[in-house]
Design goal:
Elements (H helix, E strand, L loop, with lengths): L2 E7 L3 H7 L3 H7 L4 E6 L13 E4 L6 H6 L3 E5 L7 H4 L5 H9 L14 H4 L11 E5 L20 H11 L4 E5 L11 E3 L5 H10 L2 E5 L2 H8 L5 E4 L4 H4 L5 E4 L31 H4 L2 H9 L2
Parallel strand pairs: 1-2, 1-4, 2-3, 5-6, 5-8, 6-7, 8-9, 9-10
Helix pairs in contact: 1-9
């Protein structure tokens, strides 16, 4: 009788990309078991050689009969976001997952496997000049009250300053939400497309200035060092050493976090939680430009 590991992963695209780095370790830890995934973003796991079957959450016909009922199955349905090390911002998301899954932590990073046809999507992003990718906005497409989410999105002033500094030598492509502030003169990408095609933009770009969202995880998966801006979240928890992680200045305000329970700031960017009074308090834009120019 076949034996299984069933791993349930829910959450955003970036979280799923981060999880791809653990599939190999799970198979090495449980070599006699097939790895069955039930995930919110199956696309990033489809070509993974360590995964035996992938199911989209909520679309798993006969799953109970095939993998649960009277089967020799280990079921991993854990939430690393609820772990002490994660909440206290003391360790990386991947380490918290390793502890929950009882597998060794070896500083794993994402591993997204693409096939020959998917590699061709990189050519879709070729332009006459080298591409400079700026991701100004990200996060969930639903559940956000505002087009700009201060906790993770790049301030419009920063994005425009970067584009202005590099537009002579680079073709600027901005990844954003449809209702976000657009960088003048940039090519704007906000329409729905396959995630692997969007990741092709990360590979095609000569320079990448990103935020804490799925593309910085994808850049790590494809070994593409990037400049990543951090505001209300931490590179200790979500970032990677190969990136140039620029953290916002510590806030000076006396903000009252009336809605905060286990976390300080909400991903949805509630306006009353913002501890900065202006962009200068948050970032030194000239310092960002200098650091991008040296990468």
């Amino acid at each position: 009788m076949d034996k299984y590991v069933v791993w349930h992963i829910q959450g955003g695209l970036g979280k799923n990309v981060a999880a791809t780095g653990l599939c190999k370790t799970i198979k090495e830890t449980y070599p006699d078991r097939k790895l069955i995934l039930s995930v919110s973003w199956p696309e990033v796991f489809l070509n993974n050689p360590y995964v035996d079957r992938v199911y989209p959450l909520g679309n798993s016909p006969y799953f109970y009969e095939d993998y649960i009922h009277e089967k020799d199955t280990l079921i991993f349905r854990h939430e690393p976001y609820h772990q002490t090390g994660h909440i206290l911002k003391k360790q990386h998301l991947i380490k918290s997952w390793c502890e929950l899954l009882d597998i060794p932590f070896e500083n794993q990073k994402p591993e997204v496997y693409i096939n020959w046809a998917q590699r061709g999507t990189v050519n879709f992003w070729k332009r006459e000049k080298p591409v400079l990718l700026i991701q100004t906005n990200g996060g969930p497409l639903t559940g956000q009250n505002y087009p700009y989410t201060w906790t993770r999105d790049m301030p419009p002033e920063v994005g425009m300053a970067i584009a202005e500094a590099f537009q002579k030598d680079y073709h600027i492509i901005q990844v954003c939400r449809e209702d976000s502030v657009k960088i003048p003169g940039a090519e704007h990408v906000f329409a729905a497309m396959p995630n692997i095609q969007l990741f092709g933009l990360v590979v095609a770009a000569e320079k990448r200035i990103l935020i804490d969202s799925s593309l910085q995880h994808a850049a790590a998966a494809f070994d593409k060092p990037s400049t990543v801006l951090w505001i209300g979240t931490s590179p200790t928890v979500f970032g990677y050493e190969l990136h140039n992680n620029i953290v916002a200045n510590p806030p000076k305000g006396n903000t009252k976090l009336i809605g905060a329970y286990l976390y300080d700031y909400q991903f949805t960017g509630e306006l009353h939680e913002c501890p900065y009074t202006d962009i200068q308090e948050m970032f030194d834009i000239n310092k960002i430009l200098k650091e991008i120019d040296t990468k």
